[in-house]
UniProtKB/TrEMBL annotation:
GO terms for cellular component: plasma membrane. It is a multi-pass membrane protein. GO terms for molecular function: transmembrane transporter activity. CDD domains: MFS_MMR_MDR_like. PROSITE patterns: MFS (PS50850). It holds the Pfam family MFS_1. This is MFS transporter. Keywords: Antibiotic resistance, Membrane, Transmembrane, Transmembrane helix, Transport.
Length: 465
């Protein structure tokens, strides 16, 4: 993707319009809409995870089918986000966000009405595609609304709080809705929330357009590589190394190589590879992958563990996430203060190591472990992401030019969602045999991944920025 400054070439009607309630009111509207939208799209990960056993009982889905219900969303979320960043730059962040939010709301309605696992998975594909448009546009909105770096850091922290609260509290809400009504209400909840976000967005300032060139070969190869890899991991875990699984793995490798070759040779690539030469870009991309792999994968495994192994109801399982949810929300806001005082390196490393402690402790729990011990061990996992992600996001956006904000936001969140999708695929495959052993191996793997990234961040990032 090629992005240049709009300059005087931007059409007058697409330049930033006067803000009806003043600059502060318009910025608040943009931030509120961005936080609310990010909350609902993240809620559709954690809230749906705790409802998966009920979906399986109602629609007759197998474990692999339930993995696809979860992964079809995160897969499209990850695969389309780079092009979605280009769309945000091309049509303006506010317009792109409105398109994505409207489509997400309609897809949520379709999910709630789905008669089969296949129909639900298809609707989740549309949901994930819409979410891919929303995330880079929401971050671009925040960057536009808050040009001052300190104010922007606080805005990003609040945006991250919305996602952190959703992914941590989602199991509680999803469990309550599933237990008291049914799993379909988890999706129906998005409809009024989406309409409220659209109403708030109308009060935000218009966004300037940026000239872009869409990279169709890069997008096709990216989708093919991620989809084939996810298919190979999920199906391989349940059926072994069949011809179909090996073929899918081969397609993933070929498509991945093709994607790299296309992006290196195109004059207007979707993903400018030179971005990775900046440590302020490469470290957040890799560490963001690790954070989401640990968190998304952990929530997926624990949701099944509470219900399938401990025999808890969906609501009871959701309540296990309450301590983590409450504490996570507070630490998201502490992160920018820590960055201002100690620099991003210290905050990122501390967050990654804290998350690793949580995963390591959870790897040792079993059906006989007291519930309060398990709940307590989940807290460091939430704190780790709450500390690291705001710092990583601010570091990423501060490392690129303003006109590449959409691309940078898309790249970071592509990496994060890919981490979530692949962790669900890998952890689900490990659970397919002996659940207890698979759970321990999954969480130990997540802990090792976080420790490795903490060491990498400590070595590559400067002590102060």
């Amino acid at each position: 993707m090629s992005v240049t400054k709009a300059g005087t070439g931007a059409r007058p009607e697409e330049r930033e319009a006067p803000r009806a309630g003043g600059q502060a009111g318009s910025a608040t509207a943009a931030l509120t809409a961005a936080v609310l939208g990010f909350f609902v799209i993240t809620l559709d990960v954690s809230g749906v995870n705790v409802a998966l056993p009920a979906v399986g009982r109602d629609l007759g889905g197998s474990l692999s089918g339930l993995q696809w219900v979860a992964d079809s969303y995160t897969l499209m979320f990850a695969a389309l986000m780079l092009s979605a960043g280009a769309l945000s730059d091309a049509v303006g962040a506010r317009r792109a966000y409105a398109w994505g939010l409207g489509l997400f709301t309609l897809a949520s309605l379709a999910c709630g009405l789905a008669p089969t696992v296949g129909a639900l998975t298809a609707a989740r594909v549309v949901q994930g595609s819409a979410a891919a448009v929303m995330v880079p546009a929401s971050l671009a909105l925040i960057r536009q609304a808050f040009p001052d770096p300190d104010e922007r850091a606080r805005g990003i922290a609040l945006w991250t709080v919305g996602g952190a609260v959703a992914i941590a509290a989602g199991p509680v809400l999803g469990g309550l809705l599933t237990t008291e009504w049914n799993w379909r209400t988890v999706f129906f909840l998005n409809v009024p929330a989406g309409l409220a976000a659209l109403a708030t967005l109308a009060r935000a300032a218009r966004s300037a357009r940026q000239p872009v060139v869409f990279d169709l070969p890069g997008q096709v190869t990216a989708v093919l590589a991620l989809a084939a890899l996810t298919f190979a991991v999920i199906e391989g875990g349940h059926h072994g190394l069949t011809t179909t699984v090996l073929s899918a793995a081969a397609v993933a490798v070929v498509a991945g190589v093709a994607f790299t070759a296309v992006e290196a040779r195109r004059r207007a690539p979707m993903l400018p590879l030179e971005l990775f030469r900046q440590r302020g870009v490469s470290v957040p991309v890799v560490a963001g992958f690790a954070c989401n792999a640990a968190f998304y994968g952990g929530v997926f495994v624990l949701s099944l563990y509470f219900q399938e192994q401990r025999g808890q109801s969906a609501f009871s399982a959701g309540l296990m996430f309450v301590p983590m949810a409450v504490i996570t929300a507070h630490f998201n806001y502490f992160s920018p203060k820590g960055v201002s005082r100690f620099g991003p390196r210290s905050v990122v490393v501390a967050g990654l190591l804290t998350g690793a402690v949580g995963c390591g402790g959870l790897a040792a729990v079993g059906t006989g472990t007291p519930w309060w011990v398990t709940a307590a061990l989940m807290i460091p996992l939430g704190i780790g992401g709450a500390l690291a992600m705001p710092a990583l996001t601010s570091l990423m956006l501060d490392s690129v030019a303003a006109e590449r904000a959409g691309t940078a936001a898309a790249l970071l969140n592509t990496s994060r969602q890919a981490g979530g999708a692949l962790s669900i695929a890998v952890f689900g495959a490990l659970l397919a045999g002996d659940f207890a052993r698979g759970m321990a191996e999954s969480l130990a793997l997540a802990a090792c991944l976080l420790v490795a990234n903490a060491l990498g961040a400590a070595a590559l990032l400067p002590r102060r920025r």
